[in-house]
């Protein structure tokens, strides 16, 4: 008789556990899927570099270097100088002499 009571209790506990596990799995699956990342809009390197180099003493050289950096990094820091924290890739590009490439 004791064996039958223990078996019945174990069976009921197992069914309750299965029920709660199934309910938790259903709750986790009800989240909507994450939106797919949007491709960034292509940067107008010509316009960004013309503004960046507008106060340069050598605008043609500046535009050529800036354009090369912009095509590599896909960004140009705002303003006519500085602000490199907005585009770390632009800041970290160097020439063969280990000098900064980007104006």
What does this protein structure show overall?
The protein is an all-alpha fold. It has a domain at 43-90. 53% of the residues lie in helices and 0% in strands. Helix 2 (45-52) crosses helix 3. It is rod-shaped and about 100 Å long. The model has no long low-confidence stretch (mean pLDDT 84).
How are the SSEs ordered, and which strands pair?
Layout: H1 2-28, H2 45-52, H3 59-73, H4 88-92
Class inferred from helices and paired strands = mainly alpha
Number of strands: 0
Radius of gyration: 31 Å
So how many helices?
4
Helix content: 40-55%
Percent range for β-strand residues: under 5%
The SSE order reads HHHH
What would the average pLDDT be, to the nearest integer?
A: 84
Q: Label the overall shape.
A: rod-shaped
Low-confidence parts: none
Family: Belongs to the GASA family.
Keywords: Signal
InterPro entries: GASA
Pfam families: GASA
Q: What attributes does this structure have?
A:
mainly alpha, 103 residues, rod-shaped
Briefly characterize the structure.
Residues 1-23 form the signal peptide. This protein has 103 residues and is mainly α. It has helices at 2-28, 45-52, 59-73, 88-92.
